[in-house]
Design goal:
Helix content is about 55%, strand content about 20%. The protein is an alpha+beta fold. Helix 4 packs across helix 13 and helix 11 packs across helix 12. The chain starts with a strand and ends in a 6-residue tail after the last helix.
Length: about 575
C-alpha cells in the first residue's frame, strides 16, 4: 500500500508531499490542475517512461519517491525479489525512487540502492495497478489472466500437485535427452573409451610404483660403482691388504693390548666397549657382503625399468599428473563405457516412467481445465452483472480457452496430444464485447478509456479477494458517465477500498462523495509561474469542494453536497444486492 508520495520539479508540480491512508482516496480539481500529472509521476516511479519533457521549467532534475507498506497479498513475492537482489532493508516497507535529469538520463532506486528500470518495473507490478494508463495495466496482459482465474477457481492445491509432477517430468526428460545425445555419439565415443580403458588396464598400474622404479633405475645404472665402493669399504673394515691391515685386525690387537693393561691396572675396564665396537664392525661387514651379492649387473633389467618408466610418463601426460589420477581416469572411462553400452536399456526404462508421469499430468490437467471452465462461467456472469450496474448493460465478458496440438504433449485420448506447461494445457485470455454486434475482443483492444476503467472496476470488484496487488489507481473511470452511474461507481470503488487501497481521479461529485480521503488539486499562478498544489480536505472544506463540483457554491449546492455525503454514507453501509 502506498503510504507516502514525494514529487519534485515534475511538470507544473514544484514540490509535493502526500501521505495516504487505506480505503478510497479521491483526487478532484479543475481540468489542467495537475490531477493526472500526479498519476503520471506515480507511473514513472513504477518504471514507466522518463525523459526530460517532464521537468519543470528551469529545473535541472525531477524526482519522484514513494514509500510502500507491504501487505499480506504481496509481501512474500516482494521479499523474495528484494532478497534475490540483496536490496532488503525493512521487512514491512519498500522505498522506490526515480529521478530524471535535464540531459534525459534517468536513475532508479530501490531502498536507496541504484537499480535498472526493469527491476523497478518488476517490483512495481506487485505494488500498484494503474487503470487508465494502459501501458501499466496488468490485467490487460493475457499472461496474468490464468493466474487470476486460478485464484478465483481456488485450484492452488491441485495446481501444486500438477507442478510437482511436471517438475519430475522435466527432470526425467532432461536425463533422456542426455542419454540420447550420448547414444547418437556412441560409436565414436565407445571406440575412444574402449581404447582408453584397454590402455590403462593393460598397464596394471600400482600407486607409488614410479618412485620404486626410479630408485631401482638409479641402482642398476650405478651397479659397478656401488660394487667397487662396497668392496673397498669391506676391505678397509674386515679384509685388509698385506700393506694395510683391516680395521678388524687392528681392533683385535687393540683388544689384546687393553686386556694386558687391565691385568696390571684393574681400574682400566674398556674391554666391553671395544668388544661392542668389534661386533658393530663385524655386523657392517656382513651387511656389506650381502649388499655385494645383491648388486645386479643386469643391462636387460635396466632396459625393462626404463621402458616401464617411459610408459608411466606417457600415461600420466595423457590422463593425469600422477599414477593415482590415471587409475581414477580409467575407472571413470570404464563406467562411461558401461553407461553408453546400456543407454538403450536406460532410455527404454526412463521412457516407461515418462509415459506414467504424462498420464498422471493428463489427469490433473483435465481436472484443472474443468475447474477453470466452471469458474470462468461463474466469473463471466458476475462481471456482466457488475457491468450492468455500471451502465454497460450490453457488454459481455468471456474467458477464452485455447489448446495446441503437440506430438510430445499430454495424451488425451488415442493419438491426441496437447502442448502443456507448468500450469496445464489451457491458454487463457479474458475477452470482452463492449457493444452488440462487435464480437469478443481481447481487453487490450478496447478503445475507450472509460470503458476500460469500468471493465477493470467490474473485474476488480468480482475478483477483489483474488487480486494480490494492494493499490489500484483509476484515472479515467468517470469518462462518459453521468451522476447516477457515478454514485454506483463510487459505491463499487468504496467496496473495493475495503480490500485494496484505491486512488481515483474524478470530476463527478457523486463519486467523490464516497472517498475515505479527499484531496483537492488546484493550479496557482505566482510571479508568472504556474504551480500545482494539493490540499487534504476535511469536513467543511470537503463540502465546499463537492458544491463547487456541482456548480457555483450556493446554499443549494452546499445542501446538495451534504445530501451526496449522506447518501454515500448510507449506500456504503448498505449491502449491495448484486455484489
Amino acid at each position: 500500500m502506498l503510504t507516502e508520495l514525494r514529487i519534485e520539479n515534475f511538470a507544473i508540480i514544484d514540490k509535493l508531499e502526500l501521505e495516504f491512508s487505506s480505503g478510497l482516496i479521491i483526487f478532484t480539481g479543475e481540468t489542467g490542475a495537475g490531477k493526472s500529472i500526479i498519476m503520471d509521476a506515480l507511473e514513472m516511479l513504477l518504471g514507466g517512461r522518463a525523459d526530460a519533457s517532464v521537468l519543470r521549467t528551469d529545473a535541472e532534475r525531477a524526482s519522484v519517491e514513494g514509500v510502500f507498506k507491504l501487505t499480506q497479498g504481496n509481501r512474500q513475492s516482494i521479499l523474495d525479489l528484494l532478497l534475490r537482489e540483496d536490496l532488503l532493508d525493512d521487512e514491512n516497507y519498500v522505498v522506490l525512487a526515480r529521478e530524471v535529469k535535464r540531459e534525459g538520463r534517468s536513475t532508479a532506486r530501490i531502498n536507496g540502492i541504484t537499480v535498472n528500470v526493469a527491476l523497478l518495473k518488476e517490483i512495481g507490478k506487485y505494488l500498484v495497478d494503474i487503470h487508465g494508463q494502459t501501458e501499466h495495466l496488468s490485467i490487460l496482459d493475457p499472461h496474468s489472466h490464468q493466474g487470476l482465474l486460478d485464484r478465483y477457481a481456488n485450484v492452488a492445491d491441485l495446481l501444486s500437485r500438477y507442478r510437482k509432477i511436471y517438475s519430475s517430468l522435466q527432470e526425467l526428460r532432461g536425463s533422456i535427452k542426455e542419454l540420447r545425445l550420448a547414444q547418437a555419439d556412441s560409436t565414436r565415443r565407445m571406440d575412444m573409451l574402449t581404447f582408453q580403458v584397454t590402455e590403462i588396464e593393460a598397464a596394471r598400474l600400482k600407486p607409488g610404483e614410479d618412485e620404486a622404479l626410479y630408485q631401482e633405475r638409479t641402482r642398476l645404472a650405478h651397479a659397478e660403482q656401488l660394487a667397487a665402493s662396497a668392496q673397498e669399504t669391506l676391505q678397509i673394515l674386515d679384509e685388509g691388504t698385506p700393506e694395510t691391515p683391516s680395521i678388524s685386525d687392528q681392533l683385535g690387537r687393540a683388544t689384546k693390548t687393553l686386556a694386558a693393561m687391565s691385568r696390571i691396572d684393574t681400574q682400566i675396564d674398556l674391554s666391553l666397549r671395544i668388544e661392542t665396537l668389534n661386533e658393530s664392525i663385524a655386523e657392517i661387514s656382513r651387511e656389506l657382503r650381502d649388499y655385494l651379492e645383491s648388486i645386479e649387473f643386469n643391462p636387460r633389467r635396466l632396459e625393462d625399468v626404463e621402458e616401464r618408466l617411459d610408459l608411466l610418463q606417457r600415461l600420466t601426460r595423457k590422463y593425469g599428473g600422477s599414477i593415482e589420477a590415471v587409475i581414477a581416469f580409467g575407472e571413470k572411462a570404464r563406467l562411461d563405457l558401461e553407461s553408453i553400452s546400456n543407454a538403450s536399456e536406460k532410455i527404454n526404462e526412463l521412457s516407461s516412467r515418462e509415459a506414467i508421469l504424462l498420464k498422471d499430468l493428463a489427469d490433473l490437467a483435465n481436472q484443472l481445465s474443468e475447474k477453470r471452465k466452471a469458474a470462468a462461467a461463474e466469473l463471466s456472469k458476475k462481471v456482466e452483472i457488475e457491468l450492468d450496474d455500471l451502465k454497460m448493460a450490453s457488454a459481455q465478458f468471456s474467458v477464452d480457452f485455447q489448446t495446441r496440438a503437440d506430438p510430445a504433449g499430454i495424451p488425451l485420448g488415442k493419438d491426441h496430444r496437447l502442448a502443456f506447461d507448468e500450469s496445464g494445457f489451457d491458454k487463457i485470455e479474458f475477452l470482452v464485447a463492449p457493444n452488440p454486434g462487435e464480437g469478443f475482443k481481447p481487453l487490450a483492444k478496447i478503445a475507450s478509456g472509460g470503458e476500460t476503467s469500468r471493465l477493470m472496476l467490474a473485474l476488480k470488484n468480482t475478483m477483489a479477494n483474488e487480486d494480490q496487488i494492494p493499490s489500484l489507481v483509476f484515472d479515467e473511470i468517470d469518462q462518459g458517465i453521468g451522476g447516477r452511474v457515478g454514485a454506483v461507481v463510487g459505491r463499487k470503488l468504496w467496496n473495493l477500498g475495503r480490500i485494496h487501497q484505491v486512488l481515483c481521479v474524478t470530476h463527478l461529485p457523486q463519486l467523490a462523495a464516497f472517498g475515505d480521503q479527499h484531496f483537492r488539486v488546484q493550479k496557482l499562478i505566482s510571479n508568472q509561474r504556474t504551480t500545482s498544489q494539493v490540499v487534504a480536505l476535511k469536513d467543511e472544506e470537503r463540502l465546499v469542494e463537492l458544491a463547487q463540483m456541482l456548480g457555483e457554491v450556493t446554499e443549494g449546492t452546499l445542501r446538495s453536497a451534504h445530501d451526496l455525503l449522506q447518501a454515500a454514507e448510507t449506500m456504503a453501509s448498505t449491502p449491495s444486492p448484486k455484489s
